[in-house]
Specification:
Length: 231
Amino acid sequence: MRLLRTLALLAAAPTLALAEIQVVGDGACPTYAADIAAFATCEGDRVARPADDAPMQIATLAGERVAARKRTDSGLHVTAAEAHRLLQAHPGQVALIDIRSRAEIAFVGQPDRVDIHVPYLEPAQPLQWGAGDSGLKMQRNPAFVGEVRAELARRDWPEDSVILLLCRSGERSAIAADALAAAGLPRVFTIVDGFEGDLGASGQRIVNGWKNAGAPWQARPLARLTVEPAH
């Protein structure tokens, strides 16, 4: 009888994949009704229902729509507006990692919600002006990949989670995303317009980016993230 009820339920919802049918009951039943025969042997009257979380739909940008300096080998590109939507639509399933330097965050601000902060570049010490640049000379954090992995583990985030990388305007995050992908993290997305966005004709960063998309942010850095993490 239980087998018949299960088959009838599945027939009534043909668009649902079996992996999306979650069994309601105690530990005597499998977590997912992927095996009808196994489900039918469960004791007691239990039913199946769709899982609470809808499948995650991510609006990515094709490579040809992304400036060459901001493209990744994986082709996983999203806008700041889409990143903000994902964080709202899938709380606890998407990790936002700010990879800007502590100095940038202190002077420019930070999104209201950031899960992890691991700088990809930091000012060289002692401080010095970058030749040919309009800012301080920066140096790469050689422990970047290991620190990201450690922070994910510390917060119980699986390495196959959806990860969003945020820098100033999308160039550093593309390079950092490739580094993480090469290390085996499969779903690392670069936010192509970053926190501040691209330069407009006026010389100001008013074109796009997290701040210009109307996503929430604050001037003060999140001290729990930007101070030296305790491992």
